Amino acid sequence: MREVAVLGVGQTKFGELWDRSFREIGIEAGLQSLVDAKLSSADLGALFLGNMASGSLISQEHIAPLILDYAGLAGRHLPAVRVEGGGASGALALHQGYLAVASGLYDYVVVGGAEKLTDVPDATAADISSSAADHEWEVVFGATLPALWALMARRHMHLYGTTREQLAAVPVHAHDMAGKNPNAHYRNKLTIEQVLGAGPVAEPLGVLDCAPFSDGAAAVVLGPLEEARRHTDTPIRIAASQVACDTIALQNRQEFTTLESTVVAARHAFAQARRAPRDVRVAEIHDAYSISALMALEDLGFVEKGRAGAEFASGRFGRDGPLTVNPSGGLKAQGRPFGAVGVAQVVEIVRQLRGEAKDRQVDGASFGLAHDVGGTGATSVVHLLERTN
Amino acid sequence: MREVAVLGVGQTKFGELWDRSFREIGIEAGLQSLVDAKLSSADLGALFLGNMASGSLISQEHIAPLILDYAGLAGRHLPAVRVEGGGASGALALHQGYLAVASGLYDYVVVGGAEKLTDVPDATAADISSSAADHEWEVVFGATLPALWALMARRHMHLYGTTREQLAAVPVHAHDMAGKNPNAHYRNKLTIEQVLGAGPVAEPLGVLDCAPFSDGAAAVVLGPLEEARRHTDTPIRIAASQVACDTIALQNRQEFTTLESTVVAARHAFAQARRAPRDVRVAEIHDAYSISALMALEDLGFVEKGRAGAEFASGRFGRDGPLTVNPSGGLKAQGRPFGAVGVAQVVEIVRQLRGEAKDRQVDGASFGLAHDVGGTGATSVVHLLERTN
């Protein structure tokens, strides 16, 4: 199997991009990543695109060749493949791009993620976000995606004594980080009081515990590590790319304060990279809801099960700690364009490992992790990335 | 790159399966393929699922882990990935499964394709089928998928003298073949007169020139060729797996009596396999509309451009000819559950190459082709399959 490296990255602003179409944002991110990789489109072998719900959102399926086409590449008749796994679509697309280069059938590929959520009313976007849970056995009974995560939060509070204030520390951290990210959907500061005082979505989760619906796109260029130095002085090796799945519905799990899919994907990823959680200096993790981030820290092996609330509230995961979490602002504050998220996480980690993250640079970052989740954890994807010089 | 073989196949009946859910048909095909491969689910490494529009059709995205879950495999936390490319979704999923095994990261994978089209009204299914064309520049102006293929048919008639009767020979052939396929949606015989007399959909195409909306699922098990003999006496090698794309909208093409995506995918596939079109004894090709099959025969290199109408009407592609086309009955008569089609084509070719196609067995079949198309050809996928003993 060939070693694979990230050679270029690109990303649009995340937010309410009412004046820009799905195809426009998809192309912007893709072309940025090609320029960044110093690659001409003539070198490109394929496109893999992560997107969750373009059929429901913009009545358009078959979007991978559409993006290729509007990027001016239709004449080369390259393969273009869309990959979907709820909110994990972007990271799954990266896994497919990784396999494509690792197999040797393709040399250079672009992996993009894009979603246009604000062309429909918020209530419709909320319905569509819930289509990543079990429609037949959860959603039709009113158990929407935030309601299901709220169940997990309640159970975590019950079992481990996690407090409402500890949950609220997650969005406060996210907005604090996003303040230095020009691409972020929300850059305003939040206080614990504001989070606690915000209207309820599904108790204990309030409006400010839930990531927003955003438009946005991100892209990375992958290629063989052995040729990476022709394109960049700081090639970033994909040390591991692992996917794991679980039941689509919460009720079929043994317990739900852990995402087994994350536990397994992380275990496989650290085994593939021959590294341990303590080696990670910077991580982008899934924080679609406050509880998601706490569970992720535990399931990825960064803290003991049940301890994430207290550890997070202590400020341990800030910019100066041994492990900096979500320097981009995460899904909560950078934004949550479903299919773009998993790719954007990797864009941020690559920028951090290259030392190109400007105001939000984490010191001494040479090994990083990206963690993307679909629905209530029926899919988890973990990527480990390493600076090779 | 490792050589990849098909070790097992499975398929449900295609048709109006009103008493069965999406998850039920997906599981039936998958389990059949595992049994056929003499593989326990404990050997399995991943699932790749082709599906076009479950979000719009059954309000359910994130369906790959759902199928894995309902197959009883959630406890193993295997990776499960959905792939989408309009009507080519199934063949694209097969390409991803092929890359997964070829890369060496996975040993045994299931590739499934499934679609449940009859849970919505036909008019809704028609709308959804058109979401594989360009929504913004074609569909909103009334250019639905059959209307676009009708334009191609008119142009083919104008340029090459293809006749209405020659087009009608395509569904007549399809129904004739499907008469021997117990899984087919339609097994009744058709006459040229019936096809010509059927109500118009988009002239020159009538109702009987258009493949139906079907429910159905199909699956194959892939593994490394070097281990294939442990599972089967007749391993079928994937000699080539190639994808090519083109503009999403017809108006942006140089001309539209050829699908350049098919021409390129076929050229790459024959180069990868070091074989030529004349080596193919049996082929499953895209015949969603009568004109689709004629263009495919030309674009795949089986007949000279412009000659397919005459050649097809001569009966050359029947069971006893040098090249038998669509022994399953094709999309027209076996049925057209979008995301399942590309996988079902490969199931049929594998059965033919193994000599297990019963009443519809094609004599001397040792090398076959499967050709799947999305929309109006923004995606084409070509697989070449070879019996290795």
Overall description:
2 copies of one chain form a homodimer. The first copy, chain A, is built from 13 helices and 12 strands. Chain A has 389 residues and is an alpha/beta fold. In chain A, the strands form 2 sheets. The first copy, chain A, has a 10-stranded mixed sheet with strand order 3-2-4-7-1-8-12-11-9-10, sandwiched between helices. Chain A folds into 2 domains: 4-121 and 214-236, 3-Layer(aba) Sandwich (Peroxisomal Thiolase, Chain A, domain 1), CATH 3.40.47; 132-211 and 238-387, Thiolase/Chalcone synthase (Peroxisomal Thiolase, Chain A, domain 1, 3-Layer(aba) Sandwich), CATH 3.40.47.10. Helix content of chain A is 36%, strand content 18%. The interface between A and B is large, with 64 and 64 residues.
